[in-house]
Amino acid sequence: MADTLEFNEIYQEVKGSMNDGRLRLSRQGVIFKNSKTGKVDNIQASELAEGVWRRVALGHGLKLLTKNGHVYKYDGFRESEFDKLSEFFKVHYRLELAEKDLCVKGWNWGTVRFGGQLLSFDIGEQPVFEIPLSNVSQCTTGKNEVTLEFHQNDDAEVSLMEVRFYVPPTQEDGVDPVEAFAQNVLSKADVIQATGDAICIFRELQCLTPRGRYDIRIYPTFLHLHGKTFDYKIPYTTVLRLFLLPHKDQRQMFFVISLDPPIKQGQTRYHFLILLFSKDEDISLTLNMNEEEVEKRFEGRLTKNMSGSLYEMVSRVMKALVNRKITVPGNFQGHSGAQCITCSYKASSGLLYPLERGFIYVHKPPVHIRFDEISFVNFARGTTTTRSFDFEIETKQGTQYTFSSIEREEYGKLFDFVNAKKLNIKNRGLKEGMKQSYDEYADSDEDQHDAYLERMKEEGKIREENANDSSDGSGEETDESFNPGEEDDDVAEEFDSNASASSSSGDRDSDRDEKKPAKKAKIVKDRKPRRKQLESKKGKDPNAPKRPMSAYMLWLNANRERIKSDHPGISVTDLSKKAGELWKAMSKEKKEVWDSKAEDARRDYEKAMKEYGMGSKSESSRAERSKKKKKKQEKQMKGKAEKKGATSKSSSSKSPAKNMSESFKSKEFVSSDESSSAESKKEDSEEEGLASLPRSSEDSASGSD
User: Fold this and answer.
1) How many CA atoms lie within 13 A of 546 on its CB side?
2) Rounded distance, CA 302 to CA 199, Å?
3) Using an 8 Å Cβ cutoff, are 110 and 119 in contact?
4) Which fold has domain 341-421?
5) pLDDT class for 646, splitting at 50, 70, 90?
6) What residue spans define the domains of the chain?
7) What mean pLDDT is predicted for residues 626-646?
8) Under a CB-based contact definition with an 8 Å cutoff, are residues 611 and 544 in contact?
9) pLDDT tens-digit series, residues 44-54
10) With helix as H, strand as E and coil as C, how does 254-309 read?
11) Taking a C-beta distance cutoff of 8 angstroms, is the pair 112, 121 a contact?
12) Is the pTM of this model over 0.70?
């Protein structure tokens, strides 16, 4: 019997929505990882109380009940998997996997049973439907009637919003069955009621999303945002992750709260709550609890009286109440020394933070991408200028994120970070040793750094740098090998009409100012040969035989795969270096084998070229004759133009109409080099009112030819 069972494309029912993910059953318990959010549900084997197998809409489903009343539903199993699951439950969990079918009689009267967090409507011993009470947002009563309202599901096209139960009156005195029904529902329902005093209140905090100033009231089970226009109540169960991110200016801090499901304002959904703090702002905080309650509830994580930076106090209180670790930037450090990169996403500029297990972009719109959902990344040339590049991320679901306008100096640092995290880089391939080593069922933030420990380390680094400031002359590195920007200077100068005016500031260093005019002259001089070179490339015959490879290249093609297998994960440049070393160390006898193969390839090439030349000889001779004829005609026209310029100064007696007809040149006789000069001469002659002498009959005849 296997120790683990794994199932892909399993759906978990949570608040009316079916979330797909991966399910693993092991001796220790049951683990389900949500593919969309990365959230992990872990059920210990000792907590399982009952397992039920039944037929559902998506095939067959598994319902697990725990000893503390929680219910977990997983759908998407095949009927043939029942025997395997039943045996696994019996061996490892000491449970019988019971088969229970739903009642499909269609009756609308029966018995309601409350079990843990589940309301079950049964007919006889068979359930008709079940309602997780955590889905209930409100419960109201009327005469012999109870109405349940549900949370809206944004992922579904159609959502169940309300169910009404008719409760018949009973003969028992002093017991109202309607109120008893409602109390059973409300005791387990996800109904947010601001009863009692808040634990603490933070006044007028700056919030970026949703935008505005909000008072944050901290209650035991939820967070209350109170603004001038809107109020939001956020249960702690909807908080996925907490982030504490330093701003690039080192004077402000972002505190980001990831939410699922999101908070709503009309049709707008906010998946992230982003607060902005100044590092200089301090606060003294007193919790609205006595010291015994604080110690019992928070176990030393909070004290009744606390003081410190405002962002520290908010993050500390949230960490204790939500019971989740705070994610901070890892060991990434950009070109300017910051732990983030300035870039643009869609239409807005923001900051991209490379984390230990993902990327997060703040702030409009906020984006969090986990490494385990990334298919590949790509470094692309900037669309508007070569002084920046784009960083593209494509997920396994096909969603693409493009972060643009990143300074080229950040390329080296970001590339090294992506390489160290073993992410697949587009156009380079996924090599052995570069495969992602993430645990499929690990929580995406379970091994993140502690924010306060990280902050202390950072302060220690700053003190150490200040102490050694005199010895450290230059702490910045420039990445000169940035591939997308190799032709930066040429592109900038080729399209600049005034090289000195293209500089954004007048006080640039003198070296750049001296180089610009010289480079401009070089570009103007070399422009014509470059065009000819392009024309010659364009005219290359694709059917011509290919040149033979050298002995080294023949050997490399035959041994490339062997070198890759001997050195897994080797890059293209390292492979070329290694091949060069092996070829250099090879004996003369072994090289002669490849030299003879190269000689045979050369003979075959020469033979193919002879056959190709005989076939295209007539075409080449025809092209050469037309070329000679064209050159001859251009030479004749040039001589006539010079003669005409010399004689036009001494004669001005002919009519303008005749002059126009005789000085006309057909388009095919005007070369591209002389067209502009000829037109300028024609305009000058017309302005002065000069007319050329009439041609002789021989000249006019040759011109007409």
Assistant:
1) 4
2) 12
3) no
4) PH-domain like (2.30.29)
5) low
6) 4-99, 111-187, 200-327, 341-421
7) 73
8) no
9) 888 888 888 88
10) EEEEEEEEEEEECCEEEEEEEEEEECCCEEEEECCCCHHHHHHHHCCCCCCEEEEE
11) yes
12) no
